[in-house]
Design a protein that fits this description.
Strand content: under 5%
Strand order of the largest sheet: 1-3-2
Number of helices: 11
CATH architecture of the largest domain: Up-down Bundle
Number of strands: 3
Helix content: 55-70%
Structural class: mainly alpha
Radius of gyration: 23 Å
Shape: elongated
Number of domains: 2
Largest sheet: 3 strands, antiparallel
CATH superfamily of the largest domain: GntR ligand-binding domain-like
Length: 259
């Protein structure tokens, strides 16, 4: 093997090592701005191609944003649940996944999150006050479709966030964002369906009952959440002809993935 071919073989490996060390530093919160290219070359004793490839790897992962032009450099970003949601949506979209598949997963997992909220001994200091604020806001927003959609998204996300399990928060939260991104895409157009007032009132009533059950620690809240999701998803199916996961672009446009 020629020397130039050997260098080409080693370069990706070197780049991966550099990317791995920088990735660890970013995740630990030790790096918010990457050093200059020249400093990285000196630090890792590597050639410019390997360092540039390492930065491309990190940029693809969403961990850095490279500033181009006269003001060079790169800003580092901690990984976010929103980027997970974006990638999950892309994977599901690439598999032509039916939206009902996402709904089925949410019907299995979000009720579990609700029952875990109800089991928290500190629920009346943490989860419940925020849920009550959201329900009050929802009651005030009836008739305002865009505002209500955002409030409903926050209600369900707060239940997931409040379950106390980081893994569920990440994974179920990603599915919530996929569903919310799709719902917002459906209701965003000029010819978007206008839900009847009874739909919003039923949603508000269910949310109020869910909060009350979590507040008193009622484990059966999972049954109510499941039935509530079934009704919501059935309505979505009735107004959406595609029924396919297409939320990735909407998630990106709403800055959920990159904010």
């Amino acid at each position: 093997m020629s020397r130039s071919a050997s260098r080409r073989t080693r370069a990706p490996r070197t780049a991966e090592i550099i990317a791995g060390q920088l990735r660890d530093a970013i995740v630990r919160g030790e790096l918010t701005v990457l050093p200059r290219l020249e400093d990285l070359i000196e630090r890792f004793q590597a050639g410019p191609p390997a360092v540039r490839e390492a930065m491309r790897i990190l940029e693809t992962e969403g961990l850095i944003t490279i500033r181009r032009g006269n003001v060079g450099g790169a800003d580092a970003h901690l990984p976010t649940a929103d980027r997970v949601a974006y990638m999950v949506s892309l994977v599901l979209q690439s598999k032509s996944t039916n939206l009902g598949d996402v709904g089925e997963a949410l019907r299995a997992l979000e009720p579990l999150c609700a029952s875990m909220c109800a089991a928290r001994p500190d629920r009346n200091r943490t989860v419940v006050p925020e849920l009550k604020r959201i329900v009050a806001e929802q009651a005030d927003a009836i008739g305002d479709v865009p505002r209500t959609l955002g409030i409903v998204d926050r209600f369900h996300d707060t239940i997931v966030q409040g379950c106390g399990n980081d893994t569920l928060v990440l994974m179920v939260g990603a599915l919530e964002r996929v569903w919310a991104g799709h719902a917002n895409a459906v209701y965003a157009g000029d010819d978007a369906p206008e839900p009847p007032p009874t739909t919003w009132k039923t949603s508000l009533r269910d949310h109020d009952r869910i909060v009350a059950m979590i507040e008193r620690g009622d484990a059966k809240v999972d049954d109510l959440v499941r039935r509530h999701l079934e009704a919501t998803q059935a309505y979505m199916s009735s107004v959406d002809d595609t029924c396919m996961v297409t939320a990735a672009a909407t998630i990106a446009n709403r800055s959920l993935a990159f904010g």
